[in-house]
Amino acid sequence: MTGARLTTQKPDKKLLIGIAISALCLFLLFRKIDFRKMADAFAAMDYRYLVPALVLTFVSYYLRAVRWKFLLAPIKSTRLGNLFPSTLIGYMANNLLPARLGELVRAHSLGQKEGIGTSAVFASLVLDRLCDGFTVLLVLLITFFTIKLPSGMERVQHGLVTGGYVTFALYLFVLAFLFLLRWRTEFTVKVVTRVLHPFSARLAEHAGALLVSFISGIRIPTSISGISGVAVSSLLVWATAIWPVDLMLRSFGLFLPPSASMFIMVFLVFAVMVPASPGFIGTYHIACVTALSAFQIGSEKALSIAIVIHAMGFFPVTVVGLYCLWRDKVSIRSIGVTNTEEQLREP
User: Fold this and answer.
1) What is the SS3 assignment for 227?
2) Closest CA to 245 of 30, 53, 65
3) What topology in the membrane does the UniProt record assign (predicted)?
4) Can you tell me the distance from the alpha carbon of 306 to that of 290, in angstroms, rounded to the nearest whole number?
5) 197 and 186 in contact (C-beta within 8 Å)?
6) CB under 8 Å, gap of 24 or more: what pairs does 289-294 form?
């Protein structure tokens, strides 16, 4: 984590590349769309599904705050009354700021409320993202082995099963690596540096130092209740994130098995990893349309669904996050400066 300001005078090249990618995705999505068919899809939508989907969306964010409480337990016992607003502020900032700077905003927000150093809070967010990664891998694994695509998609189905085996192997490898890194740190770092050394001595040295810094800065819950809390809350976080996707499909008259919503969610998770404009505009939509095309859903209806799913995940948390930011009297512009000062104070 750096102490750089969140805003710079020169245009951010990564931001410009992201905007270009988003523009390209939007062009590819809309170039052959029949807008009358899109209007018909929206007209036929059952809007009653929006309310439970919205409730579940905020339940998912609340469960993220619960998991964050378990992850911070080795550092300090924190209040959900502080964790939940800071979570909403962080995701609001991720929607509006480039380069996922919402994680820094989220760490700063909670650190100020709970009196914890931003670096320590940020370390817990690294672990938070690892929990998301493991859960998504599990969702991906279940999806690949259980999903049933329509007739004519047998080759894609076979590819998904193959992907399931690859994902399962990757899942086991990552778990084994992190276990060794945590309990046999010196041994694991030596193995990594020896493997990388023939390619680049500098890279090997840097990777070793990074791994030591990473594992020493993270305090993992060790109690049974803490580990169980993290595991259960992680599963519930993603269950309540996937369920709204199913509700959105139903609102457009599509009654697909739960594995279809899991399949779409996996595509959306990978979409937000691609450089894009703030809000993941374009990349998010093209990922959703691509996933829906596997179920032979027309482009117009698929794009309509993508727009609604994106709006459901973007506008509510952004509005509430901005309110929490205003209520807490926090300025995003000042966070980079405050963080720099804190880094200078820390040993």
Assistant:
1) helix
2) 53
3) Multi-pass membrane protein
4) 10
5) no
6) 289/29, 291/263, 291/264, 291/266, 291/267, 292/264, 294/149, 294/153, 294/156, 294/263
pTM exceeds cut of 0.70: yes
What local confidence, expressed as pLDDT, does residue 11 receive? 59
Under 8 Å CB-to-CB from 58, ≥6 apart: which residues? Answer: 316, 317, 320
Which parts of the chain sit beneath pLDDT 70?
Answer: 1-11, 216-217, 332-347
Beta-carbon count within 10 A of 256 CB = 18
- How far, in Å, are 141, 173, 226, 291 from residue 168 at the CA level? 6, 9, 25, 21
Contact 149, 294 (CB under 8 A): yes
Please give the DSSP secondary-structure letter assigned to residue 298: -
Tokens 């690949």, located at residue:
144
Q: Report CA-CA distances (Å) from 223 to 82, 103, 126, 174, 182.
A: 23, 26, 20, 22, 15
Please state whether 329 falls in left (phi above 0), alpha (psi between -120 and 50) or beta. left
Q: What is the dihedral of CA 64, 171, 175, 221, to 10 degrees?
A: 10
Query: Residue type at 42?
Result: F
- Give the Cα separation of 26 and 108 in Å (integer): 34
